[in-house]
Amino acid sequence: MNNLSKKLVTAAVLVSAAGVVFVAQSGGDDEMKKQISQARSAAPASISGNATIMSAGKVLVKGTNDWICMPDTMPGDGNPMCNDPTWMKMLTALGNKADFKADSIGISYMLKGDVGAGVSNSDPYHPDPKNADDYTETGPHLMIIVPKELLKGLTDDPNSGGPYVMWGETPYAHIMVPVGDKE
Fold it and tell me: Please, which residues have CB within 8 angstroms of residue 36's CB and are 6 or more apart in sequence?
């Protein structure tokens, strides 16, 4: 499993294991404030402003909605993301190499993109994704999980200029929806 997958899965497992996570005290140092701000930048304020903020497996802010936002997809990469519960279930399955079947829509926001932390578009477990033949980075985007039968007819080409399917031949298939250009 690559570093991106490991980081996301660690966060998902810790969130789903009630009582295991640490809630940081409010106030605190500049680094925690920076992480909270970075995590909230992943999604619109209407979502991230009330989301639980996690970093390195610890809850920094307990939210009031069902969203989980993180400041990085890999330590220090500056590529924040916000996930709904379906997306977190998928990440937990991914981390356990377990089957996953979407029975509802799942949404993840990465409005800052994933520049420098891209992945193999076909293999979530690629041992060296930056050297994969289908390595891809996407600027600001949404990721949408739908029941797999709804993916039929969508391209898996990240260079098509629009939405595309990532990890399409795996249980973790989802739609990547670019919403801005790479910086």
Answer: 53, 60, 61, 71
